[in-house]
Automatic annotation (TrEMBL):
PANTHER family registered for this protein in UniProt: PROTEIN AST1-RELATED
Species the sequence originates in: Chitinophaga qingshengii
Gene3D superfamilies: Medium-chain alcohol dehydrogenases, catalytic domain, NAD(P)-binding Rossmann-like Domain
Pfam (any one): ADH_zinc_N_2
Ranges where the Enoyl reductase (ER) domain occurs: 10-330
Entries under InterPro entries matching the protein: ADH-like_N (IPR013154), ER (IPR020843), GroES-like_sf (IPR011032), Lipid_raft_assoc_Zn_ADH (IPR052585), NAD(P)-bd_dom_sf (IPR036291)
SMART domains: PKS_ER (SM00829)
Protein name per its UniProtKB record: NADP-dependent oxidoreductase
Length: 333
């Protein structure tokens, strides 16, 4: 098979295309021909050798896919060669998804929503499962007031769609560009609920926008200094969902002083615990919502076809915050 291989931690020039053996597959695994792969921030964090790189098991990065089953192990159930599927492979596959093939536990796989092309379907698993886990564990109520950081990204936009589909509309967030603001307005946020984080006095402006009400939930999808703002606008004994593990020491101090209850959102926690069925089961719930029209599919940008240059371009765009509410995708054609 062909794969884009990371030859060492560092900048994007560490990626090179190479010929590798097509992976063998076990009795409980599917061999999948990948038709499209999506990019996630954890990809470039791994490339840089940051904490996330501890979960690497292959020099081929990439964590989600849409593709076609080529072969099925004897103990697999519900899949056959020719089936079109999606999956968040995480670090559990034979390799990452910057490749033409992958072997993966069938319990992590779901059938592709039939109305979505591969290039859109591949953007569902990682962001969708993160947003779905956040929503399910928060159990927010319609009267709750929510503040999200980094909501224009794939996880944030997916989460906003889930929240709105379940009657939760008191949503406030930030944006740093007109493109991001337009993307948030397109999924239903009022302009007055979108604050420019580049302007001074962000905490005061968020509270002014909310009518001086402190928030029932803060969801941090960005990390860094803006996580401090999320903690500052949170009310006493309220909830904080941490999706990044990139909060500052001051963020943690603020949350402790407010007696916040904290949800750490980690998709790979289920893989570490050996609960591989969680991925397929929850993907099927998400695809049901998509098939029924309860939520809209994510916006995507096809960066290019399979090549090292496409991977380099996508990583550069993610690092420079140039996704503007779209999930970046690579097709294998």
């Amino acid at each position: 098979m062909q794969a884009i291989v990371l030859h060492g931690f560092g900048d994007v020039h560490q990626f090179h295309q190479a010929e590798l053996p097509t992976p063998s597959f076990g009795e409980a695994e599917l061999l999948i021909a990948i038709k499209a792969a999506a990019f996630n921030p954890i990809d470039y964090q791994m490339r840089q050798g940051r904490r996330e790189s501890e979960h690497m098991h292959s020099p081929v990065l990439g964590r989600e896919l849409a593709g076609i089953v080529v072969a099925a192990g004897a103990q697999t159930q519900g899949f056959a060669p020719g089936d079109e599927v999606i999956a968040a492979a995480g670090s559990k596959g034979s390799n990452g998804t910057y490749a033409t093939h992958i072997a993966l536990d069938y319990r992590m796989v779901a059938h592709r929503p039939p109305t979505l092309p591969f290039s859109t379907a591949t953007a569902i698993p990682a962001a969708g499962l993160t947003a779905w886990q956040t929503f399910r564990r928060m159990q927010p109520k319609p009267e709750d007031l929510l503040f999200l950081t980094g909501a224009a990204g794939a996880v944030g936009s997916f989460l906003i769609k889930l929240l709105k589909a379940h009657g939760i509309h008191q949503l406030f967030t930030t944006a740093g560009s007109e493109q991001s603001k337009a993307a948030l307005e397109a999924i239903g946020l009022p302009p007055a609920h979108i604050l420019d984080y580049r302007q001074p006095g962000l905490t005061q402006r968020v509270l002014q926008a909310s009518g001086q009400r402190y928030f029932d939930w803060a969801i941090d999808i960005a990390g860094g200094s803006i996580s401090e703002t999320a903690a500052e606008v949170l009310g006493l004994n309220k909830g904080y969902a941490d999706i990044t593990f990139l909060g500052t020491p001051r963020t943690r101090e603020l949350l402790f002083d407010k007696g916040a209850h904290i949800l750490n959102i980690s998709n790979y926690a289920y893989a570490v615990a050996g609960r591989t069925a969680w991925y397929g089961e929850n993907l099927r719930e998400l695809t049901t919502l998509l098939n029924d029209g309860a939520i809209a599919p994510p916006a995507v940008q096809v960066v290019g076809s399979f090549s090292a240059d496409t991977v380099k371009k996508a990583h550069t765009m993610m690092e420079n915050n140039q996704t503007y509410g779209r999930k970046l995708v690579m097709t294998m054609d």
